[in-house]
C-alpha cells in the first residue's frame, strides 16, 4: 500500500475518531461545569499537567516543569503523558508522578478513576487549541478545581483560566506554555526558558565515547561536530535524498575541521546509509539501536544541528545547540516551533504545506549565517 493511501486512511480514521469524541461531548456536556476553582487563595499542593501528545510537545514543556519546581518546590508536579513521550520525564526528579494515557479505553478508564481520587488543586491542559480528549479528562479528573487551558475556542468556557493565542503574531510555544504558570502566582521574571533533559550518566557516557571517536579525524583533530537529521515523521517534511547529499558535500568542502553525523529514526536507517554512501567518507551514521534519550545525549554534544521541523529541534535548543531548521511557510508552524531563543536558523519553504522546494544552497547559506553569529559571540 502506497504512503499516500496510508495517509488518506489515517486522515479518514482521525475524522471518525473526532466525530465520535464530539458525540460523547454532546451527550455528556450537561455534566460539564464552567465554574470551580474560585478559591484562588487556597494553598496549591498538587498540580496535574495534561501532555499526552508528541515528543516535541513534551520537550517544549520541560521549562514549565523546571520553572514550577524552582519557584514553588512545595508543589507536587504530576503529568499525564503519552506512551511515546513519557520517556522524557519518567525518571525526571522534577516530576512526582508520571501517568500514561494509552488510548485503550479498558486501561484508561481505570487510570482516570485514580486521577480523580488524587484531588488535584489545579489541572493545566498543555494541549494547545481545542481537544475533546483533554477537555473530557480535565472535567472528569477535577470538576471543582482550577482548570487552565491554552488557545481554546469552542471549549474556552469550560476552563477557569485561559492563555489566548494571538492570531496575528504567534509567539513560541515555550513562551506560551510558560504563561500558564502566571495563573498560579508565578511571575514571568521567574520563567526558565531552556531546560536540558535529565539524562543518566551511562547515557551521557555513551555519547561522549562515540563523539570522541569521531573527533579523531585521521591525522588532525576535528574541531566541530555537525548533526544532520533526515527524519521528520510526516511526509510533507521529508527532504529529498539528493538534497541531503548535496548539502553534505557543500559542508564538507568548506568545513574541513568538522565531522558530520547523520541522525535518523530506525525506519529511515536504509535511507541514511544511502546518503552516507553517496556523500562519501565525509560523514558518519549515529550508532544503531539507540532510543530517544541516547539520541538526545548525542544532540546535546553537537556544535550545530540541521534538520526538518521535528522534535530534535526542541531537544537541541534546550541544550543551547544552534539549529538550522526547515519549515513550511505556514505562520503558526514556523513562529511557534522555530529554534527557541535563536535570532536565525529558520529556512522557510515557498509552500504552506511542505518543505520540498527548499534548496541545499538555502540551508547551507543559513548554516553559514548561524556559524558567523556564533563566532562573533565567541570573540
Brief synopsis:
This protein has helices at 3-28, 55-71, 105-117, 132-141, 173-178, 201-215, 241-254, 269-279, 292-300, 311-318, 331-337, 360-378; strands at 46-51, 76-82, 97-101, 122-125, 146-150, 161-163, 216-217, 220-221, 224-229, 258-263, 283-285, 304-308, 323-327, 346-348. It has 379 residues and is α/β, with parallel strands linked by helices. Helix 2 (55-71) runs parallel beside helix 10, helix 6 (201-215) crosses helix 9 and helix 7 (241-254) runs parallel beside helix 12 (360-378).
Widest beta sheet: strand line-up: 3-2-1-4-5-6
Regions with pLDDT < 50 over 5+ consecutive residues? none
Q: Class of the largest domain in CATH?
A: Alpha Beta
Assembly of the depicted chains: single chain
What is the CATH-assigned architecture of the largest domain? 3-Layer(aba) Sandwich
Helix percentage range? 40-55%
Amino acid at each position: 500500500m502506497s504512503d499516500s493511501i496510508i495517509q488518506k486512511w489515517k486522515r479518514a480514521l482521525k475524522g471518525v475518531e473526532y466525530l465520535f469524541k464530539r458525540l460523547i461531548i454532546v451527550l455528556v456536556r450537561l455534566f460539564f461545569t464552567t465554574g470551580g476553582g474560585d478559591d484562588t487563595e487556597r494553598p496549591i499542593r498538587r498540580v496535574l499537567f495534561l501532555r499526552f501528545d508528541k515528543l516535541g510537545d513534551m520537550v517544549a514543556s520541560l521549562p514549565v516543569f523546571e520553572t514550577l519546581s524552582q519557584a514553588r518546590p512545595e508543589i507536587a508536579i504530576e503529568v499525564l503523558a503519552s506512551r511515546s513521550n513519557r520517556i522524557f520525564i519518567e525518571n525526571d526528579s522534577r516530576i512526582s508522578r508520571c501517568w500514561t494515557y494509552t488510548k485503550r479505553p479498558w486501561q484508561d478508564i481505570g487510570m482516570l478513576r485514580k486521577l480523580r481520587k488524587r484531588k488535584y488543586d489545579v489541572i493545566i491542559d498543555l494541549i494547545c487549541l481545542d481537544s475533546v480528549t483533554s477537555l473530557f479528562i480535565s472535567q472528569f479528573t477535577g470538576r471543582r478545581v482550577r482548570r487552565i487551558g491554552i488557545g481554546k475556542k469552542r471549549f474556552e468556557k469550560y476552563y477557569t483560566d485561559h492563555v489566548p493565542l494571538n492570531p496575528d503574531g504567534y509567539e513560541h510555544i515555550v513562551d506560551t506554555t510558560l504563561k500558564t504558570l502566571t495563573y498560579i502566582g508565578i511571575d514571568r521574571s521567574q520563567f526558565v526558558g531552556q531546560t536540558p533533559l535529565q539524562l543518566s550518566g551511562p547515557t551521557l557516557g555513551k555519547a561522549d565515547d562515540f563523539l570522541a571517536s569521531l573527533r579523531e579525524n585521521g591525522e588532525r583533530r576535528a574541531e566541530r561536530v555537525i548533526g544532520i537529521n533526515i527524519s521528520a515523521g510526516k511526509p510533507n517534511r521529508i527532504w529529498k535524498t539528493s538534497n541531503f547529499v548535496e548539502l553534505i558535500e557543500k559542508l564538507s568542502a568548506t568545513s574541513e575541521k568538522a565531522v558530520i553525523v547523520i541522525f535518523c529514526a530506525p525506519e529511515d536507517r536504509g535511507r541514511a546509509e544511502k546518503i552516507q554512501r553517496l556523500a562519501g567518507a565525509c560523514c558518519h551514521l549515529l550508532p544503531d539501536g539507540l532510543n530517544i534519550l541516547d539520541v538526545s545525549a548525542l544532540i546535546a554534544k553537537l556544535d550545530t544541528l540541521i534538520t526538518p521541523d521535528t522534535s530534535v529541534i526542541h531537544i537541541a535548543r534546550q541544550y543551547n545547540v544552534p539549529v538550522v531548521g526547515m519549515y513550511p511557510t505556514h505562520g503558526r508552524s514556523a513562529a511557534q516551533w522555530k529554534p527557541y531563543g535563536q535570532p536565525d536558523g529558520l529556512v522557510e519553504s515557498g509552500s504552506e504545506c511542505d518543505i520540498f522546494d527548499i534548496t541545499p544552497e538555502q540551508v547551507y547559506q543559513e548554516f553559514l549565517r548561524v556559524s558567523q553569529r556564533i563566532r562573533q559571540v565567541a570573540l
